[in-house]
Amino acid sequence: MADIIKNVIIGIDPGYAITGYGIIEKSGNKLRVLDYGVIETKPKTDFEIRLLTINENVRSLLEIYKPDYMAVEELFLSKNTTTAIGTAQARGVAIVEAARSNIPVYEFTPGQIKLAVTGYGKADKHQVQTMVQRLLGLKEIPKPDDAADGLAVAICLANTGIMASGKAVAGYQYGRYGYSNIKPLG
Asked: Which residues are catalytic?
């Protein structure tokens, strides 16, 4: 009998006020939650200290759980560009920490995450949270919402598999990967 490959995945829902995270293990077709929660920063704290707090907490999670992969939510740009820029910076410090730990980073849009978790790319927040609860066999919906979102990002990678087109890229880098290189996890 062949050994079942186990992969540990950390999912990040970036934000500079609240960064949600979820850490799961995929073994064959089974998903198991290892940890989830949020990294919070205080509003009146200097911004560089807020980013440092996110960085240090992500580093600690990576040291504790030694994930094989990181999945991050791609930015959804709304009308508030100030918030988007801060969120991008929070996302960046998490990605840098993964790079420092030699962990490949994959990114997914909110629609891709919803599709991978619920089967419907326009699912509402409650539908996603309910499916996160069911897929991970949890007694209740993970709280706060940002933690449930971090778990959803991790589930997305677990259910989608790794593919070159999903690697984290920025602006000018789009299009450097083909879309036919898919490798399922475990």
From this structure: 13, 73, 146
Residue given tokens 């036919």 in the structure block: 180
What is the number of alpha carbons within 13 Å of residue 119 lying toward its C-beta?
3
Distance CA 72, CA 141 (A): 20
Total residue length of the chain:
186
Number of C-beta neighbours around residue 152 at 10 A: 30
What confidence tens digit (pLDDT) does each residue in 118-169 have?
999 999 999 999 999 999 999 999 999 999 999 999 999 999 887 666 777 6
* Tokens (6 digits) for 121: 């790319």
> CATH assignment of 6-183?
3.30.420.10
pTM: 0.88
Taking the mean position of all CA atoms in its chain, how far away is CA 152? 7
Compute the distance between CA of residue 73 and CA of residue 156 in angstroms, rounded to an integer. Answer: 10
Pairing of strands 30-40, 69-73: unpaired
- Alpha carbon of 136 to those of 22, 33, 132, 133, 141: distances in Å? 11, 6, 6, 5, 10
